[in-house]
Amino acid sequence: MTLDVAIFFISAIVAVFGATMMITVRNPVASVLYLLVSFAAQAVLFIQLGALFLGVVLIIVYVGAILVLFLFVVMLLNLRGGEDLGQPSRPMSRFSKYLIGALLLVELVFVIRGSAGGTDQTVTGMMGPVVETFGSVQDVGMLLFTTYLYPFELTGVLLLVAIVGAVVIAKRETEREAAQKKQLVEERGHSSEEKVS
Amino acid sequence: MIGDILTYLTFFPVLGVVLLLLVPKERHDSIKSLSLIIAFVTMLISFLVYALFDPLASGMQFEVNVPWVNSVGISYHLGIDGISLLLIVLTTILTVLAILSSWNSIKTGVKGFYISILLLTTGMIGVFVSLDLFLFYVFWEVMLIPMYFLIGVWGGPRRVYAAIKFVLFTMFGSLLMLVAVLYLVFKYHSMAGVYSFDIQALVSMPLSFSEQAYLFAAFALAFAIKVPLWPLHTWLPDAHVEAPTAGSVILAGVLLKMGTYGFIRICLPMFPEATVAFLPYICVLSVIAIVYGALVAMVQKDVKSLVAFSSVSHMGFVMLGLFTLNLQGLEGSVMQMINHGISTGALFLLVGMIYDRRHTRLISEFGGIAKVMPAFATYFMIVTLSSIGLPFTNGFVGEFLILLGAFQLNTWYGVFAVTGVIFSACYMLWMYQRVMYGKVTNPENEKLTDMSARERIIMIPLVFLIFWIGVYPKPLFDRIEPAVKNVLEQVSRAKSVQLDPVTYELTRVKDEKGTVTDATVTFAPEQEEATHE
Amino acid sequence: MAEYIYLVPLFPLIGFLINGLLLGRLPRAAVNFIACASVGLSFIVAVMLFFDLRALPEGQRVLEQVLFTWIPSGALQVNIGFLLDPLSAVMILVVTGVGFLIHIYSTGYMSHDPGFGRYFTYLNLFTFSMLVLVLADSFPFMFVGWEGVGLCSYLLIGFWFEKKSASDAGKKAFIVNRIGDAGFLLGMFIIFWQVGSLQFTEVMAAAPAVFAAGGALVTTVCILLFVGATGKSAQIPLYVWLPDAMEGPTPVSALIHAATMVTAGVYMLARSSVLYTMAPDALAVVAIIGAATALFAATIGTAQNDIKRVLAYSTVSQLGYMFLACGVAAFTAGIFHLMTHAFFKALLFLAAGSVIHGMSDIQDMRQMGGLKKYMPITFITMLLATLAIAGIPGFSGFFSKDEILWKSFSSSHGHILLWIIGFITAGLTAFYMFRLIYMTFYGKERMSDEVKHHLHESPRSMTLPLVVLAVLSVIGGWVGIPHVFGVTNHFEHWLAPVIAGPHQEAASHALAAAGSSAATEFLLMGLTVVLVLFSIFGAYMLYKKRPELSTSLAQKFSGLQALLVNKYYVDEIYGALVVRPIVTGSVFLWKIVDVLFIDGLINGFAAIYADISQVARRVQTGRIRSYATVFVLGVVAMVGYFLYW
Amino acid sequence: MPVSAFLVLAGVLFAIGAVGVLISRNIIVLFMCVELMLNSANLALIAFSRALHVVDGHAFVFLVLTVAAAEVAVGLAMVITIFRNRETINIDRISILKW
């Protein structure tokens, strides 16, 4: 067992474990932390695959920013796992959903195996060595600023829109707006009554 | 410039819509004035078309034929003959009057209202000028949307029900029509090797009898709903009662004519065998519509629904005239389309005026109006007389010719249709009596003001038209006649009929077995011009 | 000459336009002047045209003028064109002449009514329409006038529209007329269908070639045209509107419902005489209906108490006479009676109007009496008219009525029964007319003091037309003194070129049998005169000498009395048999067929869709997880599909 | 290591994420599951990229990351608003948009 294989299996086990725990624990804080674990393991895999830059980005952006944001929200809303989440699903429905997931997994494996059906060595075969700079900041940067310049710029716009959107959505409405909305609702209700009569 | 006049005419209202979009929505006066100017200029353009129209030439005039979507043979093909010419002029006139009539009665959503009306105008003119089935279908559907909003937004209490009913009825028919159109186009492709949506090209295509029958049925259903032919008429009273005045005027004045226009432009020329075969059924339905509409109109409590049912009756006359398949019947039918547009439009305008004052249309609420509003009563009387077809008003000319034609076709159609003349007098005069005559019993009616200058301006052109067409309809006949003769010639391609070249009368040829065999006309798309002559 | 014909209807049209467009803006005097002058001018033109026509040689007395094409549609070419021949010449003289007098009379009669402008507008429009009717050169153009007079009749009957009875009566008149018009239209259609033209000259010329004499087609045409005539001229079964029409102002009753419009049917029959002589069956129908109407209306007339209603039923009855004449192919006699009737009946109505005017709008004869000394001119003129209508020898009515009776007996289409009915009717006519005279002008003054106080003779503008008409009523018949008196019948001679019929053969026939028939004619004439005198005496006994006798008689025959007073309950029967079922049926069509059935069917379909959607929409739970489940299932299915198929 | 191993792992993570979406009633956890699925796709992309020796896959991963970030920002803003108005994070209770 080479080091490579060991790193893969350890990371894979950690990633799957984190993901599984994330969806099973009741406390949201714990969920976030398990996801963090899973992401960290995945970042290791990224780097193992030569995506040094992306692995780092994953850690910084996902773990450092997004998951922290999740944590913020969970704490802001003061969620502790004791919230009313309604009736738990019936066992049958729960089971059927696991079954669906399993089916999906089996199919995905078959897809991978199918495409690996024999001929495509790039998938089934061992990965060969790559150039030193593969996946480096420079390498990815060159690509993003040349071939994918427009999509890249568009992501900027997307982020801007997301920022504005998030602010607008999360903003507390002023009293005036609330009053207006109330009035509007009343009018609607009134006119719909008329329609009925 | 002149060659493209139909394009200008059709799309000028759209230009108006664009301009209207630029006006802030609070500026009601600017919006109203602007849309009035646009409608007025459109009317002037249509007058110009009328003036430039050559009454002696047969065939289409002002034709424009530009390939549009070549791969499927869609072209931008416009052109008019005498029938569409008159209907266009009617449309533009009624649009101006409709805009004037809503001057003070539409207070909410003013901008949207006038945009709808102008879009509607484009749709209506578009239907009348299209010579391409695709274009025809597009304009046909374009009309639907503004009308839906006119009824559904600015209508009465049950406006949503009425609007949806209107749209669903019409949609149902037009989808069948679309299927039929596509069938025609593919059929043409299989015969000529190219696609074409061109009406004139499709007309010359030979179709077997069963094909004709199905296609005729599909088109006829779409058109019959629009007319509306009994028993597909029930959307009409609801739509009329709920629609705002301008909507009713355009609906009754022009939209109903779309159905009959479709018959005369598409059904009759394209499916002559089927036309002859279906003739008895449609005639019977028309006669039922005439009598039924009149009888039901008699017992209505709401003035607008009375007028709506009278429309059913009058449009029954138009349908009967179309399917008499003789010159008098067809000419009378086209005249009746115009006349019905004028007199029913005028009736709705008048009802709108009284509605603006009293906010009710129930006959029982009125009485003695002639005393407080003498001018109104006079105009109402003139329009009433025109509606019941008194000689020397426009209504008579069309009705007389239709009855004459129907009588020649089949005595019994004539006899039963004539009773419509009697009943029309009954319901109109009874309504007039209950609204106008007697003493003022309702205190709310005591202080009604007589017609304003604006309202008089609306009515005067209509009254003028009523008498002009009633006394001197010759200019109209001159323009209708070549077009009608063309239609008859095309119908005469049916093997079961024979056209008298002098009187233009179609007579049924009785073959031994009484069955109509499939058409075996040789088909030569290149020589379609030749087959027209 | 011919190019002036259009002036005759044009003047009233101009009057109508001026008065109508400037309604409410002209002073009373101007309105009166314009209205009268326009009719007066057309009377002058009519007289000139009459003399022009007379100056022409006998065979060529036809003037035609075409203004422009009205309805050009293939083979159907209808012109706005006029046809002046001896028949229409007589008619325009009557219409403009009597019309002019009535216009003048109206200026006095309507002098206190605020609606005078509207009144004269309608009246001028009526005159125009009537002139179009009689001058038209084709059936459709005649129909213009035909419906036009119907419209004016509607407007004028309902002139005081605030009264429900008035507007009801107007509506009834129009609708009943429309029923007749429908028949007229159908008749026209058959003619066009067969002949291919609707011009009078062409139709009449082509008819003998196109129609088989006595055939079903021509009979149908004639009967349909006659249906039109029954509507306009108030014959059984469509007479019901005329008595109600008395709701209108009295001059209107005189002009429209006595002198001119109601006689349009007779004119139309005379105009189509070529067709009618070809259809003996149709003639028989006309004669029977005419005779029946004459008798029927006369009996009702004997029991009415409203002065105008008596005259109305009298009009119906006299119109029956005219149709009786037409029905025995004696169109000339019909037109002759039409003319004399126009004089004396217009006079009767105008005089009655004068009475009503003086009586402060009371029309019930039971509240009158003894008016002779208050209204001498009215009395004398009305008496002259009554003598005329009763058929006292020498007066105009005598000649015309006698000719009808004689023709109904002697004509090849006549029958002894028709004569008997006419004979009885003559007696009844004399009876109810003198009943009217005695109840109104003689006996006790039964009016209230208030009314009596205002009682006065009418102004000059009203009495002058009375006098002129009285003169005409007396001498008007002298133009048509029958052959039997040894003079030429100018009137018959004048009309001969236009009127088809057996007159040529009848003339020779009559000459052949001159010896015996002259004696018969005198015998019948004498019988009639005796009956008339006897009836007058009866009326004198019952209503002048011993009024209590009439009341006791009425009590004795109370059933009959009630039947007559209620006009045989015809209105009620029509209401129950025609009007009610139509209205109920219409409500049924609306509520049941339209709303319940058709709309129910369509809304039912919509409801079915709605119900299906009610079930289907449950799929749309709003729960993201269920959507996601379905979504993932879909993905699984799709991937599975691509993997294994 | 064969690339298929990484792909299978990506598949496993994806399936776990999917199951999480299906069974989770907590709206925040649901969100995190979506993130997990996105990232499993990233993993597959990078694996392919490595196998084919093309860096383009990295560019895509980068874009996916950006989209995920934007999505989270907006999504969490919505969660906050919803919680503020309805006092719940139960996904099943947020079901007005139905029928």
Offer a few descriptive terms:
heterotetramer, B: 533 residues, mainly alpha, two-stranded antiparallel ribbon, globular, disordered C terminus, D: 99 residues, Helix Hairpins, elongated
Report on the architecture of this protein:
The complex is a heterotetramer of chains A (197), B (533), C (645) and D (99). Chain A has helices at residues 3-24, 28-48, 52-76, 91-115, 121-124, 137-145, 149-170, 175-196. With 197 residues, chain A is mainly α. Chain A has two domains: 1-121, NADH-ubiquinone/plastoquinone oxidoreductase chain 6, subunit NuoJ (Four Helix Bundle (Hemerythrin (Met), subunit A)), CATH 1.20.120.1200; 148-197. The longest helix of chain A is centred in the N-terminal third of the chain and has 25 residues, at 52-76. The termini of chain A are far apart. In chain B, 71% of the residues lie in helices and 4% in strands. Chain B is built from 20 helices and four strands. Chain B has helices at residues 5-22, 28-52, 82-101, 110-129, 133-154, 159-192, 199-203, 209-226, 235-242, 245-270, 272-298, 303-322, 327-358, 369-372, 374-387, 394-409, 411-436, 453-471, 474-491, 528-532, and strands at residues 61-69, 74-80, 497-499, 506-508. A two-stranded antiparallel ribbon of chain B has the order 1-2. Chain C contains 27 helices and two strands. Chain C is globular and about 125 Å long. Chain D starts with a helix and ends in a 13-residue tail after the last helix. In chain D, 79% of the residues lie in helices and 0% in strands. Chain D is elongated. Chain D has one domain (3-93): Helix Hairpins (Orthogonal Bundle), CATH 1.10.287. Classes of the chains: A mainly alpha (197), B mainly alpha (533), C mainly alpha (645), D mainly alpha (99). Chains in contact: A-C, A-D, B-C, C-D. Chain A binds chain C through residues 97, 100-101, 103-104, 107-108, 110-111, 114, and chain C through 629, 632-633, 635-636, 639-640, 643.
Task: Note poorly predicted spans of chain C.
Answer: none
Query: First CA to last CA of chain C: what distance?
Result: 100 Å
| Secondary structure tally: strands of chain C | 2
Report how far apart the termini of chain A are: 80 Å
How many structural domains are formed by the residues of chain A? 2
Q: In CATH terms, what is the fold-level topology of the largest domain in chain A?
A: Four Helix Bundle (Hemerythrin (Met), subunit A)
Question: What is the subunit organization of this protein?
Answer: heterotetramer
Structural class designation of chain A: mainly alpha
Integer-rounded radius of gyration of chain C: 31 Å
**Relative strand content of chain C:** under 5%
> Secondary-structure element order of chain C, as H and E?
HHEEHHHHHHHHHHHHHHHHHHHHHHHHH
Helix-strand category of chain C? mainly alpha
Provide the helix percentage of chain A.
over 70%
Give the biggest sheet of chain A. Answer: none
Radius of gyration of chain A: 24 Å
Order of helices and strands of chain A: HHHHHHHH
The percent range for strand residues of chain A is: under 5%
Low-confidence stretches of chain A: 192-197
In percent, how helical is the residue content of chain C?
over 70%
Q: Largest interface: which pair?
A: A-D, 86 and 71 residues
> Can you say what the CATH homologous superfamily of the largest domain in chain A is?
NADH-ubiquinone/plastoquinone oxidoreductase chain 6, subunit NuoJ
